[in-house]
């Protein structure tokens, strides 16, 4: 198959994160010839070394990367499959070539645990110009498209999580200092923090400071700008600021942590594959629609009520993140139950075919009908 994937970067890194993973999975897992169109190469470059932000066209990891501008190259026409990520709409000139080629057209939708997704997954939408767009929904059940997951991921994760020395060596490559590594070796809880600006970060640091088990906090540079001041208080977690890293290293970072605070879609799925407790900050939407999506996921996520209460509070900063919510979730009994739930959640989802395999098979079936 020859495929075009279109990506508009809206949420800084999540959109391109999903598209880049999908492009690599289709190219390396199914042998597809993939062309990835991206409108924001600067954001792309922060999570993928080797990307040149000013290049109109470049090739990396066997994938043709095109800078998507207002005047696309008319020589780049539609091929077998066109995947638009999150309803980003291919440019009109490219649509003209699609009307001639009639490729399999996929709208890769946002991830949702809502029940209505199952009835809409795979449905076609006939356009007046003769083109047909199919909706493909990532999800958590067999009636959806599944989640992106690379072969061998569990084995690599388990090997790193089984070796404290390997974890320390990896964290050193990210610039984590010896004082933090020493506290970590002595049993401190390792917490990663990747959040939106609305997250109640100061309240979290205050609660971690009061926890009987010490904490170390790992956060990307530029995220939660008030974090340094909050962590300067006596008894606060030791803080390490980390550079933005390539996706495989981001996975390893999550694997090294006991608790991962993540945001958006891509980092949320990667935290699930870490098989460790996670707190998801869902992308905010008008009218608090995102909270309905959060509740749909929590109905499927087997964590104890204390953990679910913490996740809800993290997503409603206007009500305040009570120290009691953090303390209850981290209390030994609740924490052990949460850790076990995270392992079960990982295992249950990993038993399903991943999104790239499902999408490739779906497109193959569409090709047979052309």
TrEMBL record:
Keywords: Elongation factor, Glycosyltransferase, Protein biosynthesis, Transferase
Domain of life: Bacteria
Pfam family, one: EarP
Coiled coil residues, start to end: none
Catalytic activity: dTDP-beta-L-rhamnose + L-arginyl-[protein] = N(omega)-(alpha-L-rhamnosyl)-L-arginyl-[protein] + dTDP + H(+)
Similarity annotation: Belongs to the glycosyltransferase 104 family.
Protein name per UniProt: Protein-arginine rhamnosyltransferase
Upper lineage: Bacteria, Pseudomonadati, Pseudomonadota, Betaproteobacteria, Burkholderiales
């Amino acid at each position: 198959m020859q495929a075009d994937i279109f990506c508009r970067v809206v949420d800084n890194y999540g959109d391109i994160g999903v598209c880049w993973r999908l492009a690599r999975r289709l190219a390396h897992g199914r042998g597809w010839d993939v062309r990835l169109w991206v409108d924001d190469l600067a954001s792309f470059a922060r999570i993928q070394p080797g990307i040149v932000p000013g290049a109109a066209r470049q090739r990396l990891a066997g994938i043709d990367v095109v800078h998507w501008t207002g005047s696309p190259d008319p020589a780049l026409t539609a091929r077998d499959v066109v995947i638009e990520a999150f309803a980003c709409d291919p440019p009109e000139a490219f649509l003209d070539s699609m009307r001639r080629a009639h490729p399999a057209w996929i709208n890769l939708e946002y991830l949702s645990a809502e029940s209505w997704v199952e009835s809409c997954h795979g449905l076609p939408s006939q356009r007046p110009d003769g083109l047909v767009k199919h909706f493909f929904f990532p999800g958590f059940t067999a009636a959806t498209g599944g989640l992106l997951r690379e072969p061998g991921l569990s084995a690599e994760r388990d090997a790193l999580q089984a070796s404290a020395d390997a974890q320390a060596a990896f964290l050193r490559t990210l610039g984590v200092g010896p004082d933090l590594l020493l506290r970590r070796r002595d049993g401190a809880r390792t917490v990663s923090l990747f959040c939106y600006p609305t997250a109640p970060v100061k309240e979290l640091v205050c609660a971690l400071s009061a926890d009987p088990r010490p904490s170390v906090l790992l956060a990307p540079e530029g995220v939660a700008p008030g974090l340094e001041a909050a962590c300067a208080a006596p008894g606060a977690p030791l803080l390490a600021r980390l550079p933005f890293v390539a996706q495989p290293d981001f996975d390893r970072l999550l694997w090294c942590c006991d608790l991962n605070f993540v945001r958006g879609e891509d980092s949320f799925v990667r935290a699930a594959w870490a098989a460790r407790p996670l707190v998801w900050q869902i992308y905010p939407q008008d009218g608090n629609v995102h909270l309905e999506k959060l509740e749909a996921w929590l109905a499927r996520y087997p964590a104890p009520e204390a953990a679910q209460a913490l996740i809800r509070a993290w997503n409603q900063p206007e009500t305040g993140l009570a120290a009691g919510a953090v303390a209850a979730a981290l209390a030994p009994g609740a924490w052990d139950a949460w850790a076990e739930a995270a392992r079960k959640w990982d295992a249950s989802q990993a038993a399903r075919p991943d999104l790239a395999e499902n999408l490739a098979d779906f497109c193959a079936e569409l090709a047979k009908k052309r």
